[in-house]
Amino acid sequence: MYAQALDQQPAASDQQAEDARLLAHFQARIDAEEKIEPNDWMPEAYRRTLIRQISQHAHSEIIGMLPEGNWITRAPSLRRKAALLAKVQDEGGHGLYLYAAAETLGVSREELEQQLLDGRAKYSSIFNYPTLTWADIGAIGWLVDGAAIMNQIPLCRCSYGPYARAMIRICKEESFHQRQGYELMLSLCRGSAAQKAMAQDALNRWWWPSVMMFGPHDAESQHSDQSMRWKIKRFSNDELRQQFIDATVPQAHFLGLELPDADLRFDVASGHWRIGVIDWSEFKRVLAGDGPCNRQRIKQRRAAAENGEWVRAAALAHAAKQRQRSAA
Ligand code: BYC
C-alpha cells in the first residue's frame, strides 16, 4: 500500500510538470501571435471558452434572421427587398461558418442547436426586441451591425485559427449590412416628416439595446480578463462600446436625429462622447429570458426545427442512396 502510494506520487507530479510545460508553451505561442489550430494542445478552459463564445455568436446570427425576416415581404421596393433578402441570407451563412468553427473544438452542431432550442445557450440580447416599423430595418443595419463590426473586427485576430478565419469573411459582409442600414436611414431622414419621425422612433428604441450589446461593464465582465490573456478578445467590453459611441453619435447628427440620452455630452479633454447611465436591469431581464420577444424567438426556432425535420431526413436518405450506388 505504502509502496504503491510512493509509486503514484512522482507520476502525479510528473503530470503536473508536463501540464505546466504545455501551458507555458501554449501561452508563449499566443504571446508570439501564433494561431492555435484544432489539433494543437490547448487548455480545457480555452476550449470551453471558445465553444461558449463561438456558439453564442452562431446562435445570434441564426436568431438574428428572425426580426429582419419579418420585413422581407413588406419591403417598400424591389431594391430594398433584394438587399434585405441578401442580408438575411448572409446571416444564415455566418451561423453556418461559426457552427463549423465550433465543431473543430469537438462539439457537434446538433448538440449546439439542441442547447439553443432547450434554452441552455445564450444568444445576443439585441435580438429579443421587436421590429415594429420599416425604419427598424435601417436602425438594425446601422446600429446593430455597426456594433457587431466594432466587436467583430478584432475577432479576425483571435488566437484560434478557425474562428479568426471565419470572422474575416463575416466582417466583409457585415460592413455591407451596416452601409445598407445607414443608407436606408438617410433616405428616411431626407424624406417626409412622417418618415423622419419613423427613423427617430427607431433610433429611440434601438440605441440603448445596441449600447448594451457589448456586454457588462469591464468590472462586471467575468470572462474578459482571461479571454484577453488568451487573445480571444483584444479589447474590453467598455473599450469597444466607447469606440461604437464615438463613431455613431456623429452619424446620428449627420442624419439630423437626436440620441435618446439627455446626459450625452462631448468630453473635450478626452475627445470622447460620454453617455448617461445604462439600465443594466433591463439587460439582465433580457438575458434571464424576459425580454419583449425571448419566448417568441425560441418558439419560432423550435417550429423551424420541427418543420425542417423532413428535409434533414430526406437529405440523409439521399446521401445514403448515393453511398450505396457508388459502393455498388
Ligand atoms: N447578449 O464576461 P462577459 C450578431 C453574457 S452580433 C447576451 O463580458 P464575454 C449579428 C456573456 O455571454 C451579436 N449575453 O462575456 C449582428 C456571459 O454569459 P455566460 C453576437 C451577453 O464572452 C447583426 C455574461 O454575459 N456577437 O451576431 O467575455 C445581424 C458575462 O459577460 C451579452 C457575438 O457573439 C449580450 N449582449 O463577452 C445579425 C460576438 N453580453 O456565457 C447578427 C462574439 C454579454 O458566462 N462574442 N453576455 O453565460 C463576444 O465578443 C463576447 O462573447 C461578448 C461577451 C462581448 C458578447
Write the layout of secondary structure elements.
Elements: H1 2-31, H2 44-69, H3 78-103, H4 109-117, H5 135-152, H6 161-189, H7 193-212, H8 224-229, H9 237-255, E1 265-267, E2 272-274, H10 280-290, H11 294-307, H12 309-327
Helix pairs in contact: 2-3, 3-6, 5-6, 5-7, 5-9
Bound molecules: benzoyl coenzyme A.
Main attributes of the structure:
2 strands; binds benzoyl coenzyme A; 328 residues; globular; single chain; mainly alpha; two-stranded antiparallel ribbon
Q: Which molecules other than protein and nucleic acid are bound?
A: benzoyl coenzyme A
Structure annotation, total helices: 12
In whole angstroms, the N-to-C terminal distance is 60 Å
Strand content: under 5%
Rg (C-alpha, Å)? 23 Å
The 3D shape can be described as globular
Low-confidence stretches: none
**Helical percent range?**
55-70%
Number of strands: 2
Report what the structure shows.
The chain has 328 residues and is mainly alpha-helical. The protein has twelve helices and two strands. A two-stranded antiparallel ribbon has the order 1-2. Helix 2 (44-69) runs antiparallel to helix 3 (78-103), helix 3 (78-103) packs antiparallel against helix 6 and helix 5 (135-152) runs parallel beside helix 7 (193-212). It is globular. The mean pLDDT is 95. The site of benzoyl coenzyme A has 27 residues, from helix 2, helix 5 and helix 8. Benzoyl coenzyme A binds at residues 52-53, 56-57, 60-61, 64, 91, 122, 124-125, 144-145, 148, 151, 213-216, 221-224, 227, 233, 237, 287.
